[in-house]
Structures are given as structure tokens and as C-alpha cells.
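Problem: given the chain below (104 residues), write out its structure.
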Amino acid sequence: MQPLLWCEAPCLFASNFGVAAFTALVRQRQPERLDPWLTRATASTLEAFQRFASGLQEDYEAIKAGVTLPWSTSPVEGHINRLKMLKRQMFGRARLDLLSRRFL
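Solution.
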């Protein structure tokens, strides 16, 4: 099914391999592949890739660190979301003492 679809719409073929390459370099933590990928994405005929690459280049140091360094905020994301939800629920309704009891 995919090869037939790719023959009919070459932009889907290009986008599929561009996404797969970016996903692989992030998941496998291969920072040496980031610059070549950005170059290809910037030169792509697909406007979405050009915009995405432009956004990545604006925050290049953070993207490079994210691909290179082993640290992640994943373990605390659930706690952060819970705190944000509680904050939204309590907005305008509670004083500091009640808020501190709910949050802790």
C-alpha cells in the first residue's frame, strides 16, 4: 500500500523519510545527525519541513542539548500536570493556607 501511495504522492515519500530520520536521531541520541538533517529539511520542497527546521534552528542549543544529554524531565511531568490542574481548579477560590494543603 505505501509504495503505491508514495508513487502517487512523492511528497509523502519525502515527508515519511524525513520524519523517520528525525525520530531516529532523537530516540537513538545521535547529535551528529542533527546538522545534516536540518540542512536537508531546510532545502526540502516541503514547506512544513522548512518551517520546522527554522523553528529548531532558532532554539538550536536546546535541541542539541536535548539530543546529546541523558537528562530528561519525563519523571516529573505527571506531577507538574497535577499541580497545574490543581492551580486551575483553585484559581480565585482559596487563600494561601488552603492552597498549600492541596498542593502538599
